[in-house]
Amino acid sequence: MIRTIAALAAAALLTGAAHAGPDDFSYGPVFDSYGRVADIPDAEALPADTVLRVAFDIAEGADPGEVSRRIDSAARFINMHARAGLEPMNVEVAIVLHGRAAWDVTTADWYATHQDGAENANAELVAQLIDLGGVRFFVCGQTAAYYDITGDDLLPGVQMSLSAMTAHALLQQDGYTLNPF
Fold first, then answer.
1. How many Cα atoms are found within 13 Å in the side-chain-facing hemisphere of 103?
2. Radius of gyration (Cα) for the chain, nearest Å?
3. What pLDDT sits at residue 20?
4. Containing H/E element for 82?
């Protein structure tokens, strides 16, 4: 057993096998402060005319004052595919928020009032996703009613939907697939 492990280690050193790690992740090319990704040179090439229409479903809110890892995933998705050669305009993303995740797309005043004075760290990310990535945000109206969130309490560009279920049904009819991650 020990000889096998030693032989495998020696073979790895002789072949110059490289191991990736956290240092291999970086920002860009669309978002330079969000959506860190790694280059995958061995990945199958995507046809240049590929169009991706993906909906993210987010129910879990970020910790007070923290950036939502789930919202950041949309920036990762766009950066990853732009790096792989797709035109950013061919990567269409929609985010449907319900439950506590709706809090992450509220104005500074609403957020601070409901999060013990914390700052909404997601405001800049949401603005960049909308402005640079063309991402569409939908808040579940049923969630909003439960938490007393009105349209005026939402960050600029975030839309109110009748429900998360309705938003997903309409997005699916529009050719969006649901991202399970």
1. 24
2. 20
3. 65
4. helix 69-83
Q: In what order do the strands lie in the sheet with 136-140?
A: 158-161, 136-140, 91-97, 52-58, 177-179
Q: Are strands 37-38 and 25-26 parallel, antiparallel or unpaired?
A: antiparallel
DSSP state at residue 106: B
Determine contact, residues 23/62, Cβ cutoff 8 Å: no
**Does position 3 have pLDDT exceeding 90, yes or no?**
no
Q: Residue 10 contacts by C-beta under 8 Å, 6 or more apart in sequence?
A: none
By CB neighbour count within 10 A (0-12 exposed, 13-18 middle, 19+ buried), where does 92 fall? buried
Q: What is the pLDDT of residues 132-177, one digit of tens each?
A: 999 999 999 999 999 999 999 999 999 999 999 999 999 999 999 9
In sign, the C-alpha dihedral spanning 38, 39, 43, 44 is positive
- The dihedral over CA atoms of 141, 167, 81, 87, expressed in degrees to the nearest 10, equals -110
- Residue 12: is its pLDDT beyond 80? no
pLDDT tens per residue across span 70-118: 999 999 999 999 999 999 999 999 999 999 999 999 999 999 999 999 9
The SS3 assignment for 94 reads strand
Residue recorded with tokens 């792989």: 84
Please give the angle made by the CA atoms of 132, 61 and 152, to the nearest 5 degrees: 65
